[in-house]
Amino acid sequence: LAKTTQPISMDSYEGQEVNITCSHNNIATNDYITWYQQFPSQGPRFIIQGYKTKVTNEVASLFIPADRKSSTLSLPRVSLSDTAVYYCLVGDPLMYNNNDMRFGAGTRLTVKP
Amino acid sequence: DSGVTQTPKHLITATGQRVTLRCSPRSGDLSVYWYQQSLDQGLQFLIQYYNGEERAKGNILERFSAQQFPDLHSELNLSSLELGDSALYFCASSVERDRTYNEQFFGPGTRLTVL
């Protein structure tokens, strides 16, 4: 299982673009990269998922270089409500081969006014 | 609202006891996942069921067991409870369109306190 490494915390200000990078040097061929957002005492919420290059949806972009050993979640123009913990998850989307799927510690993003 | 429901919302019990947590997935979702989140362990995957059958198993203790019923709801049974089992237990479900996409929808969680 690919282990992920993310910064423990990040600070930003309202209106700024935030980039959170996740390292996953041992990513396997079938593995996808998924990001989740979690607010205190709530279940995580899916943000975006990708395999390679760039994926964009209405809330974020995900950049994945050719070697796939890292990925960057980009949140455009953050607001105070984006303050949350962000998890990078690497694995088989259908979890056929994941016997120990861990979210890791995540990155605690604090957006300041 | 993710569409995933979990009951009860809170549960307080004593060491050595047994409890059952219940999860109803979103309509149409065949996969159910269980996670444990405690302060010192983060969010940890326990087990996954797909259409009634166990598909993947994480670091689930032998004292814990789960099942998914024909109506697709799932139950997580925790027995011989210890203080360290106090945590938030989340259930998630997914539609699993294909191997290229899998979004998990998480329920609100059950907060278990073992005294």
Written description of the protein model:
- The complex is a heterodimer of chains A (113) and B (115).
- Chain A is built from no helices and nine strands.
- By secondary structure, chain A is mainly beta.
- Chain A has a five-stranded mixed sheet, with no helix packed on it.
- The radius of gyration of chain A is 14 Å and the shape is globular.
- By secondary structure, chain B is mostly beta strands.
- Chain B starts with a strand and ends with a strand.
- Chain A binds chain B through residues 30, 32, 34, 36, 38, 41-46, 49, 51, 87, 92-96, 98-106, and chain B through 2, 4, 33, 35, 42-45, 48, 55-59, 88, 90, 92, 96, 99-109, 111.
Short description:
The complex is a heterodimer of chains A (113) and B (115). By secondary structure, chain A is mainly beta. Chain A contains no helices and 9 strands.
Based on the model shown, name its key terms.
heterodimer; A: mainly beta; 5-stranded mixed sheet; 4-stranded antiparallel sheet; 9 strands; 0% helix; B: mainly beta; 7-stranded mixed sheet; 11 strands; 53% strand
Main beta-sheet annotation of chain A: 5 strands, mixed
Give the H and E element order of chain A: EEEEEEEEE
Largest interface: A-B, 28 and 30 residues
Rg from Cα of chain A: 14 Å
What is the number of helices of chain A? 0
Strand content of chain A: over 45%
